[in-house]
Write a structure and sequence with these properties.
Elements: E1 3-8, E2 26-27, E3 30-31, H1 32-37, E4 47-53, H2 58-69, E5 78-84, H3 89-98, E6 106-111, H4 119-130, E7 135-141, E8 166-168, E9 172-175, H5 176-185, H6 193-199, E10 204-208, H7 219-228, E11 240-258, E12 261-269, H8 277-289, H9 295-299, H10 311-324, E13 327-337, H11 347-358, E14 362-367, H12 373-376, E15 380-391
Helix pairs in contact: 5-6, 8-10
Length: about 400
Amino acid sequence: MTLSVIVVAAGSGERLGSASPKAFVTLAGKTLLENSLQPLLGLDRPLQVVVVAPEGWLTPAHTLADSVLTKGVSAHDMSFTVVAGGATRTESVRRGLAAVDAGNDYVLIHDAARALTPTEVFQRVIDALEAGHQGVIPVLPVVDTIVPVDPDTSVTAPAHPREELGAVQTPQGFHTASLKAAYEQFGGDATDDAAVLRAAGHDVVAVAGHRESVKVTYPEDLRNLERVVGGVRAPGGGVMVGTGVDVHQFDPSKPLVLGGMDFPGVAGLAGHSDGDVIVHAITDALLAASSLGDLGTHFGVNRPEYEGVASTALLTHALGLLRDAGVTPTSVSVQYIANHPKIGPVRKEMCEALSVLVGAPVHVAGTTTDGLGLTGRGEGAAAIATALVVPHELA
Protein backbone atom coordinates (compact mmCIF):
# COMPACT_ATOMS: atom_id res chain seq x y z
CA MET A 1 0.00 0.00 0.00
CA THR A 2 1.06 3.60 -0.57
CA LEU A 3 0.80 5.81 2.50
CA SER A 4 0.67 9.52 3.32
CA VAL A 5 0.94 11.00 6.83
CA ILE A 6 -0.51 14.45 7.52
CA VAL A 7 0.97 16.07 10.63
CA VAL A 8 -1.32 18.88 11.76
CA ALA A 9 0.92 21.52 13.34
CA ALA A 10 -1.02 24.74 12.78
CA GLY A 11 -2.35 25.31 16.32
CA SER A 12 -1.80 28.70 17.94
CA GLY A 13 -0.78 27.48 21.39
CA GLU A 14 -3.03 30.08 23.05
CA ARG A 15 -4.14 27.77 25.87
CA LEU A 16 -0.50 26.78 26.33
CA GLY A 17 0.35 30.43 26.93
CA SER A 18 3.10 30.21 24.32
CA ALA A 19 4.55 33.14 22.39
CA SER A 20 5.06 30.82 19.42
CA PRO A 21 2.67 28.36 17.74
CA LYS A 22 2.23 25.18 19.75
CA ALA A 23 4.21 22.90 17.42
CA PHE A 24 7.29 25.11 17.89
CA VAL A 25 7.31 24.86 21.68
CA THR A 26 10.22 22.79 22.96
CA LEU A 27 9.96 19.43 24.73
CA ALA A 28 13.15 17.71 25.91
CA GLY A 29 15.34 19.92 23.72
CA LYS A 30 13.28 19.48 20.53
CA THR A 31 10.13 21.14 19.26
CA LEU A 32 6.83 19.29 19.47
CA LEU A 33 6.92 19.10 15.66
CA GLU A 34 10.32 17.38 15.65
CA ASN A 35 9.23 14.96 18.36
CA SER A 36 6.02 14.12 16.50
CA LEU A 37 7.89 13.38 13.24
CA GLN A 38 10.53 11.15 14.82
CA PRO A 39 8.36 7.98 15.07
CA LEU A 40 7.81 8.01 11.31
CA LEU A 41 11.42 6.94 10.82
CA GLY A 42 10.51 3.60 12.40
CA LEU A 43 7.87 2.74 9.79
CA ASP A 44 9.36 0.30 7.30
CA ARG A 45 7.64 1.59 4.16
CA PRO A 46 7.78 4.52 1.70
CA LEU A 47 6.00 7.59 3.04
CA GLN A 48 4.79 10.95 1.91
CA VAL A 49 4.65 13.36 4.86
CA VAL A 50 2.56 16.54 4.72
CA VAL A 51 3.23 19.05 7.51
CA VAL A 52 0.45 21.60 7.99
CA ALA A 53 2.03 24.66 9.61
CA PRO A 54 0.74 28.13 10.54
CA GLU A 55 0.89 30.95 8.01
CA GLY A 56 4.25 32.69 8.44
CA TRP A 57 5.93 29.59 9.87
CA LEU A 58 6.38 27.52 6.71
CA THR A 59 10.13 28.09 6.46
CA PRO A 60 10.95 27.06 10.04
CA ALA A 61 8.56 24.10 9.73
CA HIS A 62 10.36 23.01 6.56
CA THR A 63 13.74 23.33 8.27
CA LEU A 64 12.63 21.24 11.26
CA ALA A 65 10.99 18.58 9.09
CA ASP A 66 14.10 18.36 6.93
CA SER A 67 16.30 17.91 10.01
CA VAL A 68 14.24 14.89 11.09
CA LEU A 69 13.00 13.26 7.91
CA THR A 70 15.99 13.60 5.60
CA LYS A 71 18.84 13.53 8.08
CA GLY A 72 17.55 10.78 10.32
CA VAL A 73 18.39 7.12 9.83
CA SER A 74 15.72 5.58 7.61
CA ALA A 75 15.70 2.40 5.55
CA HIS A 76 12.96 3.54 3.17
CA ASP A 77 12.09 6.39 0.84
CA MET A 78 10.46 9.41 2.42
CA SER A 79 9.31 12.68 0.89
CA PHE A 80 7.74 15.63 2.63
CA THR A 81 6.03 18.92 1.90
CA VAL A 82 4.86 21.80 4.09
CA VAL A 83 1.56 23.60 3.51
CA ALA A 84 -0.16 26.47 5.28
CA GLY A 85 -2.97 25.64 7.67
CA GLY A 86 -6.32 27.35 8.04
CA ALA A 87 -8.24 29.14 10.77
CA THR A 88 -9.66 25.84 12.10
CA ARG A 89 -8.36 22.31 12.43
CA THR A 90 -10.93 21.15 9.86
CA GLU A 91 -9.63 23.65 7.31
CA SER A 92 -6.04 22.67 8.08
CA VAL A 93 -6.84 19.00 7.46
CA ARG A 94 -8.59 19.90 4.19
CA ARG A 95 -5.44 21.69 3.03
CA GLY A 96 -3.30 18.76 4.07
CA LEU A 97 -5.52 16.32 2.15
CA ALA A 98 -5.23 18.51 -0.95
CA ALA A 99 -1.45 17.99 -0.84
CA VAL A 100 -1.63 14.19 -0.61
CA ASP A 101 -0.16 12.51 -3.67
CA ALA A 102 -2.78 11.30 -6.14
CA GLY A 103 -3.12 7.53 -5.97
CA ASN A 104 -1.91 7.10 -2.38
CA ASP A 105 -4.15 4.42 -0.89
CA TYR A 106 -4.15 5.39 2.77
CA VAL A 107 -3.63 8.50 4.86
CA LEU A 108 -2.84 8.91 8.55
CA ILE A 109 -3.70 12.19 10.26
CA HIS A 110 -1.64 12.97 13.34
CA ASP A 111 -1.60 15.94 15.72
CA ALA A 112 1.86 17.39 16.37
CA ALA A 113 0.58 18.14 19.89
CA ARG A 114 0.72 14.36 20.58
CA ALA A 115 4.50 14.56 20.38
CA LEU A 116 5.43 11.34 22.18
CA THR A 117 3.19 8.91 20.29
CA PRO A 118 5.41 5.87 19.66
CA THR A 119 5.89 4.13 16.31
CA GLU A 120 3.95 1.09 17.53
CA VAL A 121 0.69 3.08 17.54
CA PHE A 122 1.24 4.18 13.94
CA GLN A 123 1.91 0.55 13.03
CA ARG A 124 -1.28 -0.70 14.71
CA VAL A 125 -3.35 1.81 12.73
CA ILE A 126 -1.62 0.80 9.48
CA ASP A 127 -2.16 -2.91 10.18
CA ALA A 128 -5.89 -2.33 10.68
CA LEU A 129 -6.11 -0.40 7.41
CA GLU A 130 -4.34 -3.23 5.60
CA ALA A 131 -6.90 -5.60 7.12
CA GLY A 132 -9.58 -3.73 5.16
CA HIS A 133 -11.06 -1.19 7.60
CA GLN A 134 -12.10 2.20 6.17
CA GLY A 135 -11.27 4.17 9.31
CA VAL A 136 -9.08 3.38 12.33
CA ILE A 137 -8.49 5.33 15.55
CA PRO A 138 -6.24 4.59 18.55
CA VAL A 139 -8.08 4.77 21.88
CA LEU A 140 -7.37 4.31 25.56
CA PRO A 141 -9.80 2.78 28.07
CA VAL A 142 -11.54 5.44 30.16
CA VAL A 143 -10.67 5.12 33.86
CA ASP A 144 -12.68 8.10 35.14
CA THR A 145 -16.45 8.16 35.45
CA ILE A 146 -17.70 10.38 32.62
CA VAL A 147 -20.97 12.28 33.07
CA PRO A 148 -22.73 14.82 30.81
CA VAL A 149 -22.75 18.31 32.36
CA ASP A 150 -25.22 21.00 31.35
CA PRO A 151 -23.06 24.02 30.38
CA ASP A 152 -25.66 26.50 31.66
CA THR A 153 -26.78 24.92 34.93
CA SER A 154 -23.84 22.55 35.74
CA VAL A 155 -26.43 19.86 36.43
CA THR A 156 -25.06 16.40 35.65
CA ALA A 157 -26.73 13.46 33.92
CA PRO A 158 -26.21 9.75 34.61
CA ALA A 159 -22.82 8.34 33.67
CA HIS A 160 -22.29 6.23 30.56
CA PRO A 161 -20.71 2.81 31.28
CA ARG A 162 -16.93 3.25 31.17
CA GLU A 163 -16.38 -0.07 29.39
CA GLU A 164 -18.23 1.37 26.38
CA LEU A 165 -16.09 4.52 26.20
CA GLY A 166 -12.64 5.21 24.78
CA ALA A 167 -10.36 8.26 24.85
CA VAL A 168 -9.49 9.02 21.22
CA GLN A 169 -5.90 9.73 20.15
CA THR A 170 -3.99 10.13 16.89
CA PRO A 171 -2.78 9.09 14.34
CA GLN A 172 -6.14 8.29 12.80
CA GLY A 173 -6.01 6.23 9.60
CA PHE A 174 -8.30 6.19 6.58
CA HIS A 175 -8.75 5.05 3.01
CA THR A 176 -7.69 8.26 1.27
CA ALA A 177 -10.51 8.30 -1.29
CA SER A 178 -13.15 7.70 1.40
CA LEU A 179 -11.88 10.46 3.66
CA LYS A 180 -11.55 12.97 0.83
CA ALA A 181 -15.11 12.23 -0.26
CA ALA A 182 -16.32 12.53 3.34
CA TYR A 183 -14.68 15.94 3.74
CA GLU A 184 -16.25 17.13 0.49
CA GLN A 185 -19.68 16.31 1.96
CA PHE A 186 -18.91 17.64 5.45
CA GLY A 187 -20.14 21.15 6.14
CA GLY A 188 -19.09 21.90 9.73
CA ASP A 189 -16.01 21.86 11.93
CA ALA A 190 -14.68 18.73 13.61
CA THR A 191 -11.93 18.15 16.15
CA ASP A 192 -11.85 14.49 15.14
CA ASP A 193 -11.41 13.21 11.58
CA ALA A 194 -13.16 9.94 12.36
CA ALA A 195 -16.34 11.94 13.02
CA VAL A 196 -16.17 13.21 9.42
CA LEU A 197 -15.90 9.66 8.08
CA ARG A 198 -18.76 8.45 10.29
CA ALA A 199 -20.93 11.33 9.04
CA ALA A 200 -20.45 9.90 5.53
CA GLY A 201 -21.78 6.52 6.70
CA HIS A 202 -18.55 4.58 7.25
CA ASP A 203 -17.62 2.50 10.30
CA VAL A 204 -14.50 3.36 12.30
CA VAL A 205 -12.71 0.71 14.35
CA ALA A 206 -10.50 1.14 17.41
CA VAL A 207 -6.96 -0.09 18.10
CA ALA A 208 -4.94 0.30 21.28
CA GLY A 209 -3.51 3.75 21.92
CA HIS A 210 -0.65 4.62 24.28
CA ARG A 211 -0.45 6.39 27.65
CA GLU A 212 2.39 8.62 26.43
CA SER A 213 0.36 9.89 23.48
CA VAL A 214 -0.82 12.83 25.56
CA LYS A 215 -2.10 15.90 23.74
CA VAL A 216 -0.20 19.01 24.86
CA THR A 217 -2.82 21.67 25.53
CA TYR A 218 -1.91 23.36 28.83
CA PRO A 219 1.47 24.19 30.44
CA GLU A 220 1.10 21.34 32.93
CA ASP A 221 0.83 18.88 30.02
CA LEU A 222 4.26 19.96 28.84
CA ARG A 223 5.74 19.68 32.32
CA ASN A 224 4.29 16.18 32.77
CA LEU A 225 5.77 15.02 29.46
CA GLU A 226 9.16 16.45 30.44
CA ARG A 227 9.06 14.07 33.40
CA VAL A 228 8.17 11.18 31.09
CA VAL A 229 11.24 11.73 28.94
CA GLY A 230 13.50 12.28 31.94
CA GLY A 231 13.99 16.01 31.47
CA VAL A 232 16.17 17.95 33.90
CA ARG A 233 13.13 19.84 35.11
CA ALA A 234 11.58 16.94 36.99
CA PRO A 235 10.28 17.67 40.51
CA GLY A 236 13.05 17.65 43.06
CA GLY A 237 15.58 19.06 40.58
CA GLY A 238 17.72 21.91 41.84
CA VAL A 239 19.32 25.01 40.37
CA MET A 240 20.39 24.70 36.73
CA VAL A 241 23.21 26.79 35.26
CA GLY A 242 23.82 27.91 31.68
CA THR A 243 26.46 29.99 29.91
CA GLY A 244 25.94 32.14 26.82
CA VAL A 245 28.56 33.81 24.63
CA ASP A 246 28.01 36.26 21.77
CA VAL A 247 30.46 38.15 19.53
CA HIS A 248 29.75 40.68 16.74
CA GLN A 249 31.80 43.01 14.58
CA PHE A 250 31.10 46.72 14.65
CA ASP A 251 29.07 47.99 11.71
CA PRO A 252 29.06 51.81 11.29
CA SER A 253 25.94 51.59 9.10
CA LYS A 254 23.84 50.37 12.03
CA PRO A 255 22.81 52.07 15.29
CA LEU A 256 24.29 50.59 18.46
CA VAL A 257 21.95 48.77 20.83
CA LEU A 258 23.36 47.21 24.02
CA GLY A 259 21.41 45.71 26.86
CA GLY A 260 18.25 46.90 25.14
CA MET A 261 19.44 50.52 25.27
CA ASP A 262 20.25 52.85 22.36
CA PHE A 263 23.71 54.48 22.15
CA PRO A 264 23.31 57.39 19.68
CA GLY A 265 26.30 58.35 17.57
CA VAL A 266 28.17 55.07 18.18
CA ALA A 267 28.81 52.43 15.50
CA GLY A 268 26.41 49.51 15.84
CA LEU A 269 27.02 45.78 15.73
CA ALA A 270 26.45 43.48 12.76
CA GLY A 271 23.96 40.66 13.25
CA HIS A 272 20.80 38.96 12.05
CA SER A 273 18.73 40.97 14.54
CA ASP A 274 20.04 44.23 16.01
CA GLY A 275 23.35 42.67 17.14
CA ASP A 276 22.82 43.34 20.86
CA VAL A 277 25.56 41.07 22.25
CA ILE A 278 24.48 41.59 25.87
CA VAL A 279 20.88 40.50 25.30
CA HIS A 280 22.02 37.71 22.97
CA ALA A 281 24.33 36.30 25.63
CA ILE A 282 21.58 36.48 28.24
CA THR A 283 19.15 34.67 25.94
CA ASP A 284 21.72 31.99 25.10
CA ALA A 285 22.51 31.42 28.79
CA LEU A 286 18.85 31.08 29.78
CA LEU A 287 18.16 28.60 26.96
CA ALA A 288 21.27 26.59 27.86
CA ALA A 289 20.36 26.44 31.55
CA SER A 290 16.92 25.15 30.59
CA SER A 291 18.17 22.54 28.06
CA LEU A 292 16.22 24.33 25.33
CA GLY A 293 18.91 24.64 22.69
CA ASP A 294 20.60 27.94 21.90
CA LEU A 295 20.11 31.25 20.11
CA GLY A 296 20.76 29.71 16.70
CA THR A 297 18.22 26.94 17.30
CA HIS A 298 15.36 29.38 17.71
CA PHE A 299 16.45 32.61 15.99
CA GLY A 300 19.17 31.65 13.49
CA VAL A 301 19.86 33.22 10.09
CA ASN A 302 17.55 30.59 8.55
CA ARG A 303 14.63 32.36 10.27
CA PRO A 304 13.91 35.42 8.07
CA GLU A 305 11.10 36.53 10.36
CA TYR A 306 13.71 37.53 12.96
CA GLU A 307 15.88 39.64 10.65
CA GLY A 308 16.29 43.12 12.13
CA VAL A 309 14.12 42.29 15.14
CA ALA A 310 14.98 43.87 18.49
CA SER A 311 16.97 41.41 20.59
CA THR A 312 14.73 42.15 23.57
CA ALA A 313 11.87 40.64 21.56
CA LEU A 314 13.94 37.48 21.09
CA LEU A 315 14.62 37.38 24.82
CA THR A 316 10.90 37.76 25.55
CA HIS A 317 10.18 34.85 23.20
CA ALA A 318 12.85 32.72 24.91
CA LEU A 319 11.36 33.52 28.31
CA GLY A 320 8.06 32.16 26.99
CA LEU A 321 9.82 28.92 26.07
CA LEU A 322 11.22 28.69 29.61
CA ARG A 323 7.77 29.29 31.02
CA ASP A 324 6.33 26.54 28.79
CA ALA A 325 9.07 24.18 29.95
CA GLY A 326 8.32 24.80 33.62
CA VAL A 327 11.44 26.76 34.63
CA THR A 328 11.97 30.21 36.13
CA PRO A 329 15.09 32.45 35.94
CA THR A 330 16.55 33.38 39.32
CA SER A 331 19.72 35.30 38.43
CA VAL A 332 21.78 36.46 35.43
CA SER A 333 25.28 37.95 35.31
CA VAL A 334 26.78 39.43 32.12
CA GLN A 335 30.29 40.61 31.26
CA TYR A 336 30.50 43.04 28.30
CA ILE A 337 33.92 42.91 26.60
CA ALA A 338 34.92 45.82 24.32
CA ASN A 339 36.95 49.00 24.19
CA HIS A 340 33.83 51.12 23.79
CA PRO A 341 31.30 52.31 24.67
CA LYS A 342 31.70 52.60 28.42
CA ILE A 343 28.63 51.15 30.07
CA GLY A 344 29.41 52.43 33.58
CA PRO A 345 27.35 55.61 33.18
CA VAL A 346 24.23 53.65 32.21
CA ARG A 347 24.85 50.40 34.10
CA LYS A 348 22.26 51.01 36.83
CA GLU A 349 19.53 51.88 34.32
CA MET A 350 20.47 48.92 32.10
CA CYS A 351 20.47 46.43 34.97
CA GLU A 352 17.10 47.64 36.21
CA ALA A 353 15.47 47.41 32.76
CA LEU A 354 16.92 43.95 32.06
CA SER A 355 15.87 42.70 35.51
CA VAL A 356 12.29 43.75 34.84
CA LEU A 357 12.37 42.04 31.44
CA VAL A 358 13.87 38.78 32.72
CA GLY A 359 11.87 38.75 35.94
CA ALA A 360 15.02 38.15 38.00
CA PRO A 361 18.11 40.16 39.03
CA VAL A 362 20.44 40.91 36.11
CA HIS A 363 23.92 42.32 36.73
CA VAL A 364 26.00 43.78 33.88
CA ALA A 365 29.71 44.57 34.09
CA GLY A 366 32.26 45.73 31.50
CA THR A 367 35.89 44.99 30.77
CA THR A 368 38.50 45.11 27.99
CA THR A 369 41.09 42.63 26.71
CA ASP A 370 44.11 44.95 26.97
CA GLY A 371 44.43 45.36 23.22
CA LEU A 372 44.27 41.64 22.44
CA GLY A 373 42.03 40.02 19.85
CA LEU A 374 39.00 41.32 17.96
CA THR A 375 37.70 43.28 20.93
CA GLY A 376 41.13 44.65 21.82
CA ARG A 377 41.67 45.95 18.29
CA GLY A 378 38.29 47.69 18.42
CA GLU A 379 36.83 45.53 15.63
CA GLY A 380 33.91 44.21 17.63
CA ALA A 381 32.32 43.45 20.98
CA ALA A 382 31.59 40.32 22.98
CA ALA A 383 29.52 39.32 25.99
CA ILE A 384 29.53 36.33 28.30
CA ALA A 385 26.49 35.56 30.47
CA THR A 386 25.76 33.06 33.21
CA ALA A 387 22.14 32.30 34.08
CA LEU A 388 20.55 30.35 36.92
CA VAL A 389 17.09 28.82 36.55
CA VAL A 390 14.96 26.56 38.74
CA PRO A 391 11.78 24.50 38.21
CA HIS A 392 8.60 26.53 38.80
CA GLU A 393 7.84 24.58 41.93
CA LEU A 394 11.15 25.69 43.51
CA ALA A 395 10.90 29.34 42.44
